[in-house]
Specification:
The protein is mostly helical. The protein has 6 helices and no strands. The protein is elongated and about 45 Å long.
């Protein structure tokens, strides 16, 4: 049951990302979303804005990185399998680093992060953490965490690709393109660990 909650959460984020990224702003604003994937009912999710500004993109990416860093830190201590604990440490480190780079760029560009009014990410991240916290340490936790990370990184990679194609700010586009191989590496590692968990 906890695993299906993760999939629902990740699907909701993916749906938001895909919907938002499908619309391109011709006036210089950016469209992007951030985070996970879902596999269930997304009808309760608010419809994303037609276009998002750089401030919206920076805020959403910050939220995604903060959430994955926090979940990784929990997995580093609550995971049972050594590979899961190590992956959690890597997520906490890498997403903290990506977040710091995003914040530094926002400061350089004088962009104040501003989440869109229909931002579902805080609620989705809270549900994910509630599920992780309520899942007992052991094989169930390891599987739930890694399954979620596979779904999340697929959605984030897709989102990053679309966001890089839509932003009109070269430095933001470069940052997203630099992050893409890191995200792909996370996905590859999570899928490899997933195959070892029963």
């Amino acid at each position: 049951m906890n695993g299906s909650r993760f999939r629902v959460t990740t699907l909701a984020i993916a749906a938001l990302a895909l919907t938002a990224c499908a619309k391109k702003d011709t006036g210089g604003a950016d469209t992007t979303a951030a985070s996970s994937t879902i596999s269930a009912d997304t009808s309760a999710m608010p419809a994303p804005a037609a276009t998002w500004s750089d401030a919206n993109i920076v805020a959403l990416l910050d939220e995604v990185n903060a959430a994955d860093s926090t979940a990784g830190a929990l997995a580093a201590t609550k995971g049972t399998a050594a590979a899961v604990r190590e992956f959690g440490r890597r997520m906490a480190h890498d997403h903290h680093e990506l977040r710091a780079k995003g914040q530094a760029l926002a400061k350089k560009l004088n962009v104040t992060p501003a989440a869109p009014s229909d931002d579902p990410l805080p609620a989705v991240a809270q549900k994910e953490m509630d599920t992780l916290n309520s899942t007992a340490k052991g094989k169930d936790f390891d599987k739930a965490y890694i399954d979620s990370e596979v779904d999340i990184h697929k959605a984030v990679l897709d989102l990053a690709t679309k966001a890089a194609g839509q932003t009109q700010t070269a430095e933001l586009k470069d940052l997203i393109q630099q992050a893409a191989p890191v995200i792909q590496g996370h996905l590859d590692k999570a899928e490899a660990i997933q195959k070892t968990l029963k």
